[in-house]
Each structure stands twice: as structure tokens, then as C-alpha cells.
Write a structure and sequence with these properties.
This protein is α+β, with helices and mostly antiparallel strands and 90 residues long. The chain has two helices and seven strands, in the order ββααβββββ. The mean pLDDT is 95.
């Protein structure tokens, strides 16, 4: 199943400058593993162990995976996975 992944500017050097890439999987974790097979090094920027880095937000369509099943959140063909770096400041 094809999932559209929206890549933030900071990670585009890993995706050859592509803003949107296609990946496969039935969960967020599987999509990230598939991304890693296409773009080595991207997984380390997104997850640590079995959790998404605290400074990275991941959405399936418009739903934050932190309020679903985290990396186990299911995805289906046609879904959009959006990666956003967390913004902090003062």
C-alpha cells in the first residue's frame, strides 16, 4: 500500500531534496522502516529505540500519532504521513 510522506525541509537532504516521497507499510513503524531502506539515515532522525524523538511530530492525515498508537498507529493506502519538527522558543 502506498503512503505519501511529507518531508520537512531539515530532512530533505536525505530524500534527495524531495518534499514528498512514497513509502509502504501497514503501521507508522513499517513506513519509517521502508523510508530507511530508500533513504539511509532518515530513521535515526525520526525515532530512538521504539519511540518518536520528542522533538519530532508525526501525523497520519491530520491526527497526531502521540494520541493514537504511536509507532504502531495503523496506516492504509492513500494516507498521508507528515513529519514536522517541533518548534520551541521563548
Amino acid at each position: 500500500m502506498s503512503i505519501l510522506v511529507v518531508v520537512p525541509t531539515l530532512l530533505r537532504p536525505l530524500t534527495n531534496g524531495e518534499k514528498r516521497v512514497s513509502a509502504q507499510g501497514s503501521s507508522v513503524a513499517e513506513v519509517i522502516d521502508h523510508l530507511e531502506s530508500q533513504f539511509p539515515g532518515i530513521k535515526a532522525k525520526l525515532v530512538h529505540g521504539d519511540r518518536v524523538h520528542r522533538f519530532v511530530n508525526v501525523y497520519i492525515n491530520e491526527d497526531d500519532i502521540r494520541f493514537a498508537d504511536g509507532l504502531d498507529t495503523p496506516v492504509k493506502a492513500g494516507d498521508t504521513l507528515t513529519v514536522l519538527p517541533a518548534v520551541a522558543g521563548g
